[in-house]
Amino acid sequence: MREPAAVAPERTADEPQRTADEPQRAADESGRFDCARGLVWFRRDLRVDDHAALHHALSSCREVFCVFVFDREILDALQERADRRVEFILACVTELDAELRALGGGLHVLHDRSREAIPRLAAQLDTEAVFVARDYEPAAVDRDDEVARRLAQAGRRLLRFKDQVVFDTDEVLTGSRRPFSVFTPYRTAWQRRLEALGADGRPGTPLAAWPVRELARRFAKAPLAQLPTLASLGFVRTNLAPLQIPTGARGAAVLFEEFIGRIGRYQDSRDYPALKGPSYLSVHLRFGTISIRRLARAAWQVARADPQAAAGARTWLSELVWREFYVQVLHHHPRVVGASFRPEYDAIRWETGPQADALFAAWCEARTGYPLVDAAMLQINRTGYMHNRLRMVVASFLVKDLGIDWRRGERYFAQRLNDFDLAANNGGWQWSASSGCDAQPWFRIFNPVTQSQRFDPRGAFIRRYLPQLAGLSDRQVHAPWLMTPDEQARDGCVVGRDYPAPIVDHASARARTLQRYAVVKAGGP
């Protein structure tokens, strides 16, 4: 939810933050173990192929068990009982269990608190080590550190492996060994490191796959047990199936193969929500039903082998690098959870009170009177997905037209997005609010009508979600309130009756935003 910014000097004020497992990281990544039994704990890596933790466990242990936990600590905190993500995960876990059983193993599937359940299961199975893919979100790091401590008390180990990213949080740093805070030099350093280490996917290189199937003889067969249902987890069915969202590793593979055929058009089509431009793989990256190494390797190869598709492949690869950029920002600066990356932006006084709450509700419920904003909010509310360009448009509107704290929008997206990822969501919202790492300038304010005219010129996306505007011309559909009363009556869309009037005047809102952000320019309240 951002656009690349120009190169700027690196910020060096903050010292890198370290997680508790970093001193052990080199030993963990070496893959040199020797144990009788191991347990692989699946989390954000719901696949069999190219799986780092699974490969290391099968390479090191004579017997390997597998487990997935529907973590009550996470599920009990969800506000709605109809959550597409839970349904998506259940479908992925069902496929994963079947795939593991076909290889001679299977999943232990628990509905419990991971902090207690994993050490308990490790003891029951008498495993010497638990193998996991490293997670970077502060709450997940805290959970894993506690699990590691409990395992250690019983003489067991928690072994964490890089799997969500191509380069870990301390593998791409500035010349002074500090984390990057500007994307463009980070991307340059990321690509140089990849080229230096080898990008062709050969064994030992960053994009090499971690083989699993040839080691399948070491799987320990899981006992036959009925997998949980949505009802037993405390949830109800959603519209996930009618939306035809592909699930599991098979679904991810179908989407990826389809996208590779049009990756060359990505650069030109990605900003237009009415076009089939994106890969639609974000939810699969979020839950690890496809390997980041596979995606990056394919993009790299296309960029170098196909001149006609090279620009699109490079642009898409850059989006994958943005994802890693935000991961390292969150890791090194965990304070961004709830606070501005640039502390001076926390001096901004946002709109509060009943009027602000009413404006926020109108934004959430697609009643702003700005068609592109409302169509985008209907998209996320109905499908759990929102086009990346639209994420920037609606975020800018909430923050810089309505003057509402970006954290409220961030929380709303966290509740609604199928592909919710803390690092990317936080980074995107702070980019839009100008408070984040390498964010857009504070005085840059998207005009929702201009954005609509530019990126949905014929109103095709708008009409898909706002059929009451179907009779308007391509010119009128972006700003219905500019039509005369006679035109509104003639075209069957009376503003204030069939479609809301704008809840704010953009020009006036822009002036208020510039005044609001002046506290940043002045250096304080």
Per DSSP E runs of 2 or more residues, the count of β-strands stands at 5
- How much of the residues is beta strand, in percent? 5-15%
- CATH superfamily of the domain at 343-522, by name, is DNA Cyclobutane Dipyrimidine Photolyase, subunit A, domain 3
Q: What characterizes the major β-sheet?
A: 5 strands, parallel
State the order of secondary-structure elements, H for helix, E for strand: HEHEHHEHEHEHHHHHHHHHHHHHHHHH
The number of distinct helices, counting runs of at least 4 residues, comes to: 23
The order of strands across the largest sheet is 3-2-1-4-5
Might you state the CATH topology name of the domain at 343-522?
A: DNA Cyclobutane Dipyrimidine Photolyase, subunit A, domain 3
Structure description:
The protein has 525 residues and is α/β, with parallel strands linked by helices. The protein has a domain at 343-522: DNA Cyclobutane Dipyrimidine Photolyase, subunit A, domain 3, CATH 1.10.579.10. The chain is 47% helix and 7% strand. The chain has helices at residues 22-30, 52-60, 72-75, 84-102, 114-125, 138-153, 183-197, 230-233, 248-260, 266-269, 282-287, 292-305, 310-332, 354-364, 371-383, 388-401, 406-416, 422-433, 448-455, 460-465, 485-490, 506-516, 518-522; strands at 35-42, 61-71, 107-112, 129-133, 157-161. The chain has a five-stranded parallel beta sheet with strand order 3-2-1-4-5, sandwiched between helices. The chain starts with 21 loop residues before the first helix and ends with a helix.
